[in-house]
Design a protein that fits this description.
CATH topology: Peptide Methionine Sulfoxide Reductase, Chain A
Order of helices and strands: HHEHEHEHEEEHEEHHH
Shape: globular
Structural class: alpha+beta
Number of strands: 8
Length: 210
Amino acid sequence: MPAFIRLIPVVVALLIAAAPGMAQSAAPQQEAKTATAIFAGGCFWCVESDFDKVKGVVSTTSGYTGGHVANPTYQQVSAGGTGHAEAVKVVYDPAQVSYAELLRVFWRTIDPLAKDRQFCDAGDQYRTAIFVANADERRAAEATKAEVAKRFGQPVATQIVDAGTFYPAEDYHQDYYLKNPTKYKFYRWNCGRDQRLKELWGSEAGGHTS
């Protein structure tokens, strides 16, 4: 084999190394961009189930936030006194679903008129809240809260507060509705969640749009 032919692979390698921009443009790599929203809407099993149905939601995590106890357990939060609410962290793709659309879903999956309770669950750990990360989220949340108050002609109990530390709940709470479908459905029905949502929101209950 002629010597110049044997040198071709070496020359090609040197050209690629000298022009990294060319190599990158040939095989571009773009990281997926996601955003996070945090909502409290009573039992986090139900909130997680509701948001998992929304197109553009990448993941949901049940947890605790809004209180003063570090690394709280379910037993502590459910007993009250920690200041935390059961909440869900929603990771979503803004290219598929906007924060405004998530807010619309949120309102239609809660009873916004109930203070420190949701359906059969009572206590401030079951309060409804929107935990905002910035001024834009706060403006959007406040605007939709005003719309909800106008719709019902009553004060809205849902809080809008700055997001703080979010503590993921124990593993057995994550995707509970998938791991324990019979128990979950029994709980949700007997708690009267969907019945009350239908009463409040009619055909909009659930807030899901395809």
